[in-house]
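Deliverable D5.2: sample structural annotation.
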Amino acid sequence: MNIHLEAVAPTFVARAQGIDLRDPPTSAQVEQIEDALAQYGVLIFPVQALDEIAQDRFIRCFGPGRNGTFKEAAGGNPNFIDVGTVDDQGAPIPRDSARWEYMLANRLWHTDGSFNERPIRITALLARELPPVPPPTQFADMRAAWEALGPARQAQLDGLRVVHSILRSREQTGMTPEKFDPQTLATHPPSVHPLVRTISRNGKKSLYLASHASHVEGWPVEEGRALITELIAFATQDQFVYSHPWKLHDFVMWDDRWTMHRATPYDGPHPRKMRQCAVFETEPV
């Protein structure tokens, strides 16, 4: 059965209907989803009440998944990162804990896992429990932003390489290195990626930005950070941004190569539980 796609925003984002993700997808459906991600960047699959087995099975159709998570964000299943306001037992996550501070950086515009040598290629998030008025997640179209820069500015940026670091994003929210588990820092050294990426499936170029982006390789640190700040501000203007209004059991999947996203603040009394899964690039970028 073909998946029906309905465009949601002017330049990216589509709603995907006609597939039950609890069933293993066919190879044709996997290819259709890959094509849709290259075209739309963000796919919304409504009403997908996935258990752990089905969610993990589905995401691994698209590449190598996570086989261990950060202790700072550990939940009960190492294949996922459980993002929310309560722990596995339903108790509120303490505001002074490393887990809370680590996840606070989700409110910054970012691309998942860009601090890895083989960064995350696709992320998906399942809404497991929501408050009465769920906080939206926002997405930014970095391909449309790249195209809006114009040829002269594009020529200045194409070819630059950027150092990405897990510490850079967390220091912006006040999390200092000593709050990390030493193993996290040892296994996640800084990585270098191009500022401009080309999506092999369609040959289109995009900015590649994140709050993890620390500085431009070969530039003075502050000069590079000023450029990164400028480009993130440009790429997150209203015309490039979509805010997703979550509904229970929404499963939202996105291409990290040309989209950014961020959580919006929520400090209410009702639990919010989201389960994140991801697949990684098979080679360094």
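Annotation notes: The two ends are 34 Å apart (CA to CA). Residues 4-280 form a domain with the Double-stranded beta-helix fold (CATH 3.60.130.10).
The annotation will be released with the project's public dataset once the embargo ends.
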